[in-house]
């Protein structure tokens, strides 16, 4: 058994998905303790409550203990990088401009098609190491840098086969961009033919619904086909324009709609009638040099559950949920409480894992992080550093920061 004790704050986040602004309560236990047996949490309380002996004890004095971060939107598997495109953005080129020039997604597609599985696994493990030491214990991982059956399958196989403490949840994003050899309608038909061939390798199906990429009508058709084969819909929506993608997300029963920078008041009202999770990705506009971020406050006021994610990809190269929390607080005006919940229980809900992880409660998976911070408000306030001192995944310490004198 493992006992973590003397936490200045044990942030349990118990109580399920948060929807209304009044619900964003962290359920903190002062001088908290957690008892773990095997992979599961068995008891939660104060250090005085949990005096029982355990084979291993961790003293969390002057530290906070909280659930591991769940990152519900990443593009983890790809080859190459695109650091030079940052300078094109500085010169005034837009994301879609760069895509039309053969850069962006299509550039990464060319590199990923050439890469071997072993190369992709090596690169992914390095990225996962960064995620882990920054406190992420579970991440969704999308395909989408293949745009053909062979490469999309290769990416999904890598996601399923990779061995790493960070738990991965696979998503098929075959409709990520329109390759030059296809017209839009033809490509959607091709992707629909791929779905039954990859259905056992993914939990979710996703599409980039956007002006100049895939229309709302095409997105609905594609996502409905995925549902026929047991894949749960997700959708990239309203990142650059609002063309009705959130309505599609609600109508097809998507578990989440992601990005949502341009979501209208009308679309929010439509979303509020459903159980959909709004996954906000503030690191993306940050790297696009944009001053416009998703309206987190309005989503919360409408009673729509909000989650946060990194959107890790070659255009948004961060593995740190701590960075995302800082951006959520400073750029989207979320409170520390809201940002933490959006990175734990609500983000777990965005990948259907809220009953397994995302909070510190008896019976849940023991995915915990210990932060070198006196209280939770340091998340979002103390930025540009890694506050994580230890990471526990399924009851085992899988990362511990080296101590220096």
Tell me about this structure.
This protein is of the alpha/beta class and 405 residues long. It has 2 domains: 2-67 and 359-400, Urease, subunit C, domain 1 (Roll); 70-349, Metal-dependent hydrolases (TIM Barrel, Alpha-Beta Barrel), CATH 3.20.20. The protein has helices at residues 85-90, 95-100, 104-114, 117-133, 149-161, 184-198, 216-228, 245-251, 265-271, 283-287, 296-301, 321-331, 336-342, 345-349; strands at residues 2-11, 28-37, 40-46, 56-59, 64-67, 69-71, 136-142, 167-175, 204-207, 232-237, 256-259, 277-280, 306-308, 368-371, 388-393, 396-400. The protein is globular, with a radius of gyration of 21 Å. The model has no long low-confidence stretch (mean pLDDT 95).
